[in-house]
Amino acid sequence: MTMARRFLKCTSGAAAAEMALIVPLAVLMLFTTLETGHWMYAQHQVVKGLRDGARYAARQSFDDVNCRGGNDFIAASVVDATKEITRTGQLSGGSPRVSGWDAADIDVEVTCPVSAEAQTGIFDAGEPAPQVNVSTSTGYNSLFNGLGVITDSVNLVGEQQAVVMGI
Questions:
Q1: 72 or 7: which leads in pLDDT
Q2: Where in the chain are the domains?
Q3: What is the secondary structure of 43-104 as a DSSP string?
Q4: What are the C-alpha distances in Å from 5 to residues 9, 10, 28, 127?
Q5: What is the C-alpha separation between 87 and 50, in angstroms, rounded?
Q6: What digits encode the pLDDT tens for the residues 111-121?
Q7: Which residue from 81, 114, 107 is spatially nearest to 161, judged by alpha carbons?
Q8: Pairwise CA distance, residues 142 & 156, whole Å
Q9: Three-state DSSP class for 21?
Q10: 70-109: per-residue pLDDT in tens?
C-alpha cells in the first residue's frame, strides 16, 4: 500500500507528461496559423492583380473598348495585355503574383449600360461608357501541401470592375 501511495504522490515526470499532451495541439495551431496567413497573402495578391488589370483596361481608347452600336467590344490585344498585367503586374514577362496562376484563369469582359439615358453625372453625354469586368478563380497552392487538411477544392477568387475613360 505504501508503494502505491508513493507512486501517486510522485511529480517528477509531470512536466514531461503535460508537454506530451500539449505539443500536438501547439504544432497544429502553428501550422494552421501559417497556412491561413499564406492563404490571406495569396488572396490579397489576386485582388491586387485584378484591381491593376481593371485599371489598365479602363484607361484604354474608346476604339479598343466601346459600346458602339449596342455591342460590347473589347480588342483582343487589350484582353491579352490586361490578363498579363493582372497575373504578373507587367505587360510582358515576369512571374505570376501567385504560383500556378495562369492567364486562362482570368476573364476579361466588357458590359455596356442599357441606354445612354440611364447614365448620369460625367457619363450623361455622348456614347455610353463601357465597364470592364476582370475576374478569376484559380487553385490555391498550399504552403505545406495541405497537410491533408486543405485540398484542391480551395480556390482564390475575385472580381473587379472599372468604367472605361477612353484616355
A1: 72
A2: 9-163
A3: HHHHHHHHHHHHHHHHTS-TTTEE-GGG--EE-HHHHHHHHHHHHHSSSS----SSTT--GG
A4: 6, 9, 37, 93
A5: 8
A6: 987 655 555 55
A7: 107
A8: 11
A9: helix
A10: 778 899 999 999 999 999 999 988 899 998 899 999 999 9
